[in-house]
C-alpha cells in the first residue's frame, strides 16, 4: 500500500472502557427542579480536543428517567494520558429553562464535537433534540475547565 501523508494510525484498542455510567454524579435539573443522576445510564459518543497537554472529551451522557428513558446532557472528561479519564461532577451543556428549552427538551443535548478556535476558546457543535426533531446547534466556551463560561449560538429560539 502506498504511503499517504494524510493517514493516521494504526490505532490500538485499550483493554478496558475508558468511561462508563456514573450513577453517583447528580446535579440540579433546572427544568424539572429535582436532582438527577445525569450520567447514570450511558456515557458515550465523545468529541475530543487536546489543549494544555491534556485530552478533553465532551461526552454525551444519559440519565435513566423521562419519556425517552434518558435525557441527554454533555459532560467534560479530562486525561493526562488519553486513556484514564475523570468526568467532571456536573454537565457542561444541558437543557435549561431558557430560550433554547423548546429545542432541547425533553430529549436533550447530544453528540458533541469540539475544536479549539484560532482566536482562542472552543467551539462545540451538538444536536439539540426536542423529542421529535434534531437540530444542529453551536456552543462556544472561553475554556474547558470546571465552571467554564459558555454562550450558545443557535437557530432563532422557538416561541
What do these coordinates show?
By secondary structure, this protein is mostly beta strands. The protein has a single domain (27-153), classed as 5 Propeller (Tachylectin-2, Chain A). 3% of the residues lie in helices and 39% in strands. It is built from 1 helix and 10 strands, in the order ββββββαββββ. The radius of gyration is 16 Å and the shape is globular. 30% of the residues are buried.
In percent, how much strand structure appears in the residues? Answer: 35-45%
What sort of overall outline do the alpha carbons produce when their principal axes are compared?
globular
The figure for the number of domains is 1
Task: Give me the number of helical elements.
Answer: 1
CATH homologous superfamily name? Glycosyl hydrolase domain, family 43
Output the helix-strand order. EEEEEEHEEEE
Biggest sheet: strand arrangement: 3-4-5-6
Main beta sheet strand tally, sense and closure: 4 strands, antiparallel
Helical fraction: under 10%
Mean pLDDT: 89
Please describe the structure with a list of short key phrases separated by commas or semicolons:
single chain; 159 residues; mainly beta; Tachylectin-2, Chain A; 4-stranded antiparallel β-sheet; 1 helix; 3% helix
Amino acid at each position: 500500500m502506498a504511503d499517504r501523508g494524510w493517514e493516521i494510525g494504526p490505532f490500538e484498542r485499550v483493554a478496558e472502557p475508558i468511561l462508563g455510567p456514573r450513577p453517583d454524579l447528580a446535579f440540579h435539573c433546572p427544568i424539572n427542579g429535582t436532582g438527577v443522576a445525569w450520567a447514570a445510564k450511558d456515557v458515550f459518543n465523545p468529541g475530543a480536543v487536546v489543549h494544555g497537554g491534556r485530552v478533553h472529551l465532551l461526552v454525551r451522557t444519559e440519565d435513566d428517567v423521562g419519556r425517552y428513558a434518558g435525557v441527554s446532557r454533555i459532560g467534560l472528561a479530562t486525561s493526562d494520558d488519553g486513556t484514564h479519564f475523570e468526568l467532571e461532577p456536573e454537565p457542561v451543556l444541558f437543557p435549561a429553562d431558557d430560550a433554547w428549552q423548546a429545542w432541547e427538551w425533553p430529549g436533550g443535548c447530544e453528540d458533541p464535537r469540539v475544536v479549539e478556535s484560532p482566536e482562542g476558546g472552543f467551539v462545540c457543535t451538538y444536536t439539540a433534540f426536542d423529542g421529535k426533531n434534531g437540530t444542529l446547534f453551536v456552543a462556544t466556551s472561553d475554556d474547558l475547565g470546571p465552571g467554564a463560561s459558555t454562550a450558545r449560538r443557535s437557530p432563532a429560539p422557538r416561541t
